[in-house]
Amino acid sequence: MGAVGAFCLTRYLFQDWAKSKFGQHKLLRKWHQALNSNPFSLVLSLRFAPIAPFNIINFLLALTLIDLKIYTIATSIGVIPGTIAYTWLGASGKTALQGSDASSFIFASIFLVLLSVSPLLFKRWWK
What we know:
- By secondary structure, the chain is mainly α.
- Helices cover 83% and strands 0% of the residues.
- It has helices at residues 2-22, 26-37, 39-48, 54-62, 68-97, 103-126.
- The longest helix is centred in the middle third of the chain and has 30 residues, at 68-97.
- It is elongated and about 55 Å long.
- The model has no long low-confidence stretch (mean pLDDT 83).
């Protein structure tokens, strides 16, 4: 809900200003092209990368023409694996620091790394 709130707030308060200031910027035009070809996949891959700064992604995507429904669905699906990874990493890290078996922490770390590189793997698969 927070991501959708930030998206809507940014879209309705700053989109016109950003278009006038950055509308002709090369990077913003590339974002528009990528979003026009497959918006759901782009948002989903951005959300799968748990190291991506979510707030910046919320604000940047709000400055594009992406449909709110697509953004909301892809964001809802995409944040679940990262939430699982960070929760698992935190819980297993705590038990590992308390002297328990560290194998769960190692598996959680591997899962987080795989999740972080998954957008690169998906990019190859979608091409």
